[in-house]
Design brief:
Elements (H helix, E strand, L loop, with lengths): L18 H11 L3 E5 L2 H13 L3 E5 L5 E2 L3 E2 H8 L2 E5 L7 H7 L4 E7 L15 H11 L3 E6 L17 H7 L3 E5 L10 E5 L1 H9 L2 H5 L3 H13 L5 E5 L5 E6 L3
Helix pairs in contact: 1-9, 2-3, 2-7
């Protein structure tokens, strides 16, 4: 059958293909605005390029992650046109490290969630709220790359704790990026949430059309997000694939 892609079904006028997904994301996370690209690597790349191309981006040294397929934050930073500024040490970073590194050329403060490894022992990190407070003080946007895209607190079921998307949004990051195909449970996609001005810069960037998802991805993502709406049933599995809980979402 036919798929309503870039036409508003009520007015018959042309609209943006991601509008359906965007409205669900806003409702589920409390984000002022949202859009979608084809994967989280694309979301990170276009976010960096849209907010800080030609400028410095400050990031903690311990957050320069590599994930599958040799995706590395330094490489994505270079491709986006940003200049990476590392602060702190591998295991410890303080808010003063970020503040001391800020110059007239600083365009963004970046926080990256290390979802596939842990640094334990003598460690220290800067929480997102501290980074946002510094960004507002100095007039610099903050981007939070969550990667995993967790919508609920998993700790009550004995699963490893992951940062929750809505909490990151509520903290006030200019942009929050994460995957649609990991903890969210949908198709491969990159979700971009945040302040309207920042999200609009993403939408207007030349990369955006090259990175936008097709209609099948959008349909699957919309169906997944509807499954997260209040009152829907969510099955929680452990790392061995065994069902450990069946809960109803509360939004």
């Amino acid at each position: 059958g036919y798929t309503v892609l870039e036409v508003d079904r009520f007015s018959g006028r042309r609209n943006r293909r991601e509008d359906g997904v965007s409205s669900l994301l806003r409702e589920l996370t409390g984000a002022p605005d949202a859009t979608v690209v084809n994967n989280c690597a694309a979301a990170t790349l276009i976010g960096l390029a849209a907010l800080a191309a030609g400028k410095e981006v400050i990031v903690a040294r311990g957050q320069l992650v590599e994930i599958g397929g040799s995706y590395r934050i330094p490489d994505i930073m270079a491709l986006s046109g940003c200049r990476m500024v590392e602060v702190g040490t591998t295991n410890r970073v303080r808010i003063a490290d970020y503040e001391n590194a800020i110059t007239e050329d600083t365009g963004l403060l970046l926080k990256v969630h290390p979802s596939n490894f842990q640094i334990v022992g003598f460690t220290e990190t800067v929480e997102l709220d501290e980074l946002v407070k510094l960004g507002r003080k100095r007039g610099i946007p903050v981007m939070d790359d969550l990667g995993s895209g967790c919508f609920v607190d998993l700790s009550p079921w004995g699963l490893p704790q992951e940062p929750v998307v809505s909490e990151s949004v509520a903290t006030g990051a200019s942009l929050v990026t994460f995957s649609g195909d990991k903890l969210l449970g949908g198709p491969q996609a990159g979700l971009v949430l945040g302040e309207p001005e920042a999200v609009m810069k993403v939408k207007k960037h030349p990369y955006y059309r090259a990175m936008r998802p097709g209609k099948l991805t959008l349909s699957a993502l919309e169906a997944t997000l509807r499954g997260w709406m209040p009152g829907s049933s969510i099955r929680v599995h452990d790392l061995q694939g065994r069902e450990v809980a069946l809960c109803r979402t509360n939004g």
